[in-house]
Amino acid sequence: MQELKRLIISCGGTGGHFNPGLSTACSFRDAGGQALLILGGKHFDEQSKTASSNGIEYRRVSCAPLAKNPSGAWRFLSQQTRGIREAKAIFREFKPDAVLSMGAFPSIPASLAAWFTGVPLFLHDGNARIGKSNRVFSRVAAGLALSFPAVNADTLRCPAEVTGLPLRKSLLEDVPASKAEAIARINATRGTAFTPDRPVVLVFGGSLGAAAINENFTIPMDHPAAHSLQVIHLSGPGKFEAIHDKYSACGIDALTLESASDMQNLYTAADLVVCRAGGSTVSELAIFGRYAILIPYPYAAEGHQDDNAKLLAQTGAARIVANSECSPELFRSILAEFLNDPGKFREAGKGALAMAQPEAAANVIRFIDSSLQAIRSRKT
Question: What is the pLDDT of residues 272-317, one digit of tens each?
């Protein structure tokens, strides 16, 4: 790094914004730089603890989501104005070479503060469709790092480069070497008795679960190989008992959890994944080369999960199922096809590896540094 020594990363909001920001901060720190996170929003307490546990410094700024009613709009304006003042004060103290915004409303104060103070602003987008906020800020940004080739790249007003989506370090480190090793780890930590010679399906619907998946995912018990199936199902909070009872009733070997922190083990064990199509999920599937049945979240902004899903499907490593099409009959049909030849699905999943960006965090840092060098060259 020649120009980039001190980097502020604004990444409050959901885990889809925070985790890539934290991963970038850790990578930058490990490369010898100084990183500071700016956080805000309702997840601040949880995220600040995670930042601290990773040895990353953070500050809090005021923010509020945009609302349509007058009182909500006033709160948005007052909180964002206060947040801009707080961000400016943080800039004066930390003296960043650049600011990286990971998107979402908690990043607005830092992004505006960067614009107002002349600190080079960089953006990151976690989806194949660039979001509204990034499209607006691209008019004043020095560059935008993309997780995937953008389907609406013509809307950008700043230089852009595909860097990938920085994933949690736990997903990239201590990864099992094989399905057998992954299952051994799962058995040791979860008390299961899975075996590597039998097919494994991993099912999840995001951090909060997904009703369309939880309620409709059904095993074809009339299939001769049904009882050979092993299922790992992440139900989401408050939905564990219903999912657990469903598998117990049909006698299927299943590991039911609300959530899991050892996703690298679960992905490596799986022959098939059933899930949503968020940017992080699609990036993870690419890293692990897993075939997926993707059910895009129908209320995602501007249908961006549909765009993510299409990118993965183009590699031959995914099938897209609309949320409205989910039914027990459909899942039984898909699983019957899977049980007929699990190896075919596992082999097809390798196509996703073409999209993998394991060095995404380092790519983002390099992009910012090279952009700063170009800015300096133009000034001299």
Answer: 999 999 999 999 999 999 999 999 999 999 999 999 999 999 999 9
135 and 188 belong to one structural domain: no
Whether 18 maps to a domain, the answer reads: yes
Helix (H), strand (E) at residue 46: helix 44-53
Pairing relationship of beta strands 253-257 and 272-275 according to DSSP bridges: unpaired
Do 38 and 96 belong together in one domain? yes
pTM, whole model, 2 decimals?
0.95
Do 205 and 271 reside in the same domain of the chain?
yes
pLDDT, tens digit, for every residue of 351-367? Answer: 999 999 999 999 999 99
Give the whole-angstrom CA distance, residue 376 versus residue 92: 21
The whole-angstrom separation of Cα 145 and Cα 8 is: 15
